[in-house]
Amino acid sequence: MITAGLADALRSIVGPRWVKQRPAELTAYDSDALPGYRATPSFVVLPASRDEVIAVVRLLAQHGVPFVPRGAGTGLSGGALANDAVIIGLNRLTRIHAIDAGNRIAHVEPGVVNAVLQREVAPFGLQYAPDPSSQSACTIGGNVAENAGGPHCLKYGVTLNHVAAVTVCLPNGELVQFGDPASERDGYDLCGLFIGSEGCFGIATDVWVRLLPVAPAVRTLLADFPSLTDAARAVSAIIATGIVPAALEMMDQATIRAVEASIYAAGYPTDVAAVLLAEVDGLEAGLDADARTIERCCREAGARDVRIARTDGDRARLWQGRKKAFGALGRIAPHLVVQDAVVPRTRLPDVLETIAAIGARHGVAVCNVFHAGDGNIHPNISYDASDHAQAERVHAAMSEIMQACIDAGGTITGEHGVGLDKLGYMDALFTEPSLAAMCAVREVFDPDRRANPGKVVPVHACREWGGRR
Amino acid sequence: MSAPASPSDLAARIADAHARRAPLRIRGAGTWLDAGRPCAGDPLDIGALAGIVEYTPGDLTITARAGTSLRELDRVTAAEGQWLGLDPAGAPEGTIGATVATASDGPLAIAFGRVRDLVLGLECITGTGEVTRVGGRVVKNVAGFDLVRLHTGAWGTLGVISEVTLRLRARPEVDRAFVVTGDERASLESRLAPLTDLPLAPLALELLDPALSAALGLARGTCLLVRLGGNAERVDAQQRALGALGDVREVDTAVFMRLAADEPSDALVARVSHERTRVAETFRHVLEFCGTHAQWEPLVRASLSRGLVRVVLPISSTRDDVAAANVDWPSFVRTIAPPGAHVSWERLPAEAWPHVPCAVADTISTGLRDALDPARVLNAGLLGEPARRADAVPRADARRVLA
User: Fold this and answer.
1) Above 80 in pLDDT, residue B6?
2) Which ipTM was obtained for this model?
3) Do domains A4-89 and A333-429 have the same CATH topology?
4) Which end of chain B is less congested by CB atoms within 10 angstroms, N or C?
């Protein structure tokens, strides 16, 4: 139960400043980066250390109060929203405990911002590979909770592939370690299981991330296409050559125009149907040959022009347009719905055509900006939620788009997480026993279902599970 | 009883075993039956659940029944210029189900990732006979809790894998292997030091001890076995760079298949893992340990960038050699790894296992077994017999950090 006494007890743990309770203070926490979902937390607690996190979680356990862990709130699934629950913000846990360059590992607190970590490891010639587009704000703890990806995960993999170990404050306040920073161990892969658990299994208080050497050389290309289908065919052709590009990103005309009309203008041609941003990196030797192969694939698929970034400045500008595309789209209309489906890569051309047809049928404008190399599409619709008829059309179109992706053999989320937003699609994707098994696993970590309740797995799926017969 | 011919047959068999509280021993090709701790139970053969379910080369993914052999996967993908990039020790007749269940990998893991990095989706039958499907068939997927990672490396104790979807890679345009030999009098550290700054991105880079080098006919001392792939220009440049490490000689890439397949199937096997910066130290410790502690000449190799040393003691884990050697097992299993390193045993004689700490005895691991195999019918005892949740102790992977 949430009582005045509980708030006082929390203040005595974290200090009076760090329990937020006034409506004006709570407003900042009533949504994440996906507008359209709003919920006001009972209050927000901001611990400053691992010990404070544990004390807070233990206190909430004693009172039986649900909680929602939160990083920077840049998530795109409504996952960090709290309804009748306390938000535990991890933003004050920002210490980088150690960077071990020889063993290529960094020990960080969960509130460390992704881009800050990148900046701190750069002097060692190292990088932390996952680079979500929100990296200037999003935190490592949030990246772990969502198993975040980013444009460069095509070659380097997602958060799962780059975390060696975590310490976790379980929902009962017990601290455990999953994985080991110094060695590979046998036993269940609890670290792997924890990554992407969206705050339902507890709170990571320490994360050991693996670091990679910065690639000695890189080539970035921009190809433009008269049709989205041609661009998708180029993607398939590139993947088929065996070259693993560091990134392979696509933007359609609506997105290009939004970017070029914004302060993030990158010099993309606005008269084409799609641009493909391709990057190869690695050893200098042989890299130009790979770039030429990619250029050939693009031209054979119908590219009008292919250009290669000549300078680091050129390259940064090409990337800025891509990384800030969501921000640019946000200027068009008050609301933006962002999807995150993944389809088998050979299905990209027909799925993109299907999506365009669905948009046209419902009279909504779908724009696409996405990680083409992985088949991870982000169909976005800008709209005005105060126009109820329009909002309903958007909702109907999105449901059909998701179903089309599932029908194509795909999934409903590649990197944003299920949260609240995709909860309704889980039944279409997973069988009842599969969802029940997920619930059973969740209960091992959180038998009282107090950690981020109501997210990821639909509640009805948890009712029956034969596992405890 | 006959082998299950379909996932639903398999599910029925497990549900029946659950109802009768009758333990099962899961079997693929049978090459791993003497690995892990002694494990009784009615054999449950998944070998009949074999074959490719779906393979669209353009997607670079493949879905296969668990009983499909690695050889068959290699054959099917090679026809499309692709491969799995997974080369675990053992015969190619080994199944993909067992490979995933035991999370077995090999030298290529430094380039393509470990098994946990390659598995995209699973069909898995729980210990109560529920057919679950987790993950998916696409290369990027965060929908739902990641039970794929949970089952990978769980040795079938949380569910029996019946189908697997995997990420594939295109075979490199050029694929060549090289042996590098150097001054045997120099320290291992000084011989390996140039590696830090060399422009190398190898597919595999293994350090082989003199016995293994000789067994493969590669060299008379310690050598490096390197596999380079990519376009010709990239491979040539790396071949030149290898010169900084010693004398470079090209060998047939088939040596990597022999490295995997020639390992005696009943040998004692340990993997010793430590920080990558200490790999030479770990390697030397293991060699010295084997020299003083046992009379058996080991075959030792290390995946340098992983800090992982694989030790094979080519004696039978079941025959009389072990008894004759009169080994002090408690000390043996503890001291093969240097302080701070972790040892994972694959094969040991039955009398040695009680001295190896159970890696799944913590409260979370025990809880997961209670949830997914409450009657403990799946490979019972194989990973140690963890106590029920009430009396479980936090240790091993999920160690209690603070009281």
Assistant:
1) yes
2) 0.95
3) no
4) C
Q: Which of residues 170-229 of B touch A (CB under 8 A)?
A: 170-173, 199-201
Of A383, A370, A400, A286, the closest CA to residue A337 belongs to: A383
Whether residue A4 has pLDDT greater than 90 = no
CA distance A404 to A354: 8
- Pair of tokens at residue B401: 């950090």
CATH class for the region spanning A215-331: alpha beta
The yes-or-no verdict on residue B390 having pLDDT over 90 is: no
First to last CA, chain A: 31
Contact across the interface for A157 and B134, Cβ inside 8 Å:
no
User: Distance from first CA to last CA of chain B, Å, rounded?
Assistant: 50
B140 and A158 within 8 Å at the Cβ level: the answer is yes
Place of tokens 């900042």: A28
Kindly state whether B234 is in contact with chain A, defined as any CB-CB distance less than 8 angstroms. yes
B367–A285 C-beta distance less than 8 A: no
Residue B262 binned pLDDT confidence (cut-offs 50, 70, 90)? confident
Mean pLDDT (chain B, rounded): 91
> What is the structure's pLDDT at B401?
38
Tell me the pLDDT tens digit for each residue of A309-358. Answer: 989 999 998 898 888 888 888 788 888 888 999 999 999 999 999 999 99
Mean pLDDT calculated for residue range A258-263 = 91
Share of chain A above pLDDT 90, in %: 85
A444 and B400 in contact by Cβ < 8 A?
Answer: no
pLDDT at res. B144: 96
Residues of B in contact with A437 (CB under 8 A): 126, 130, 132, 134, 147, 371-372
Distance from CA of A245 to the nearest CA of B (A): 12
Task: Read off the pLDDT of each residue in B246-253 and give the average, rounded to a whole number.
Answer: 98
The pLDDT tens digits of the residues spanning B194-213 come to 998 899 999 999 999 999 99
User: Which residues in B130-281 belong to E strands, given as ranges?
Assistant: 131-135, 160-167, 169-170, 174-181, 204-208, 223-230, 247-251, 268-273
Sequence-distant (≥ 6) Cβ neighbours of residue B161 within 8 angstroms? B66, B97, B100, B101, B122, B123, B124, B151
Residues contacting residue B35 through CB under 8 Å, at least 6 positions apart: B102, B269, B346, B347
Write the CATH number of the domain with boundaries A96-213: 3.30.465.10
CA distance A386 to chain B (A): 30
Amino acid at B248: V
CB neighbourhood size of A30 (10 A):
16
Number of neighbours of residue B291 by Cβ within 10 angstroms: 12
Is A190 in contact with B397 (Cβ distance < 8 A)?
A: yes
Residue pLDDT, tens place only, A405-453: 999 999 999 999 999 999 999 999 999 999 999 999 999 999 999 999 9
Mean pLDDT calculated for residue range B2-21: 94
Architecture of the domain made up of A333-429: 2-Layer Sandwich (3.30)
Q: Which amino acid is at B68?
A: T
Structural domain boundaries in chain A: 4-89, 96-213, 215-331, 333-429, 430-468
Rounded to the nearest angstrom, the minimum Cα separation between B117 and chain A is: 6
Query: Is the pTM above the cut of 0.90?
Result: yes
Chain A interface, best mutation among B54, B138, B362, by max A CB count within 10 A: B138
Give the least confident one: A156-165, A455-464, B119-128.
A455-464
What is the CATH architecture assignment of A4-89?
Answer: 2-Layer Sandwich (3.30)
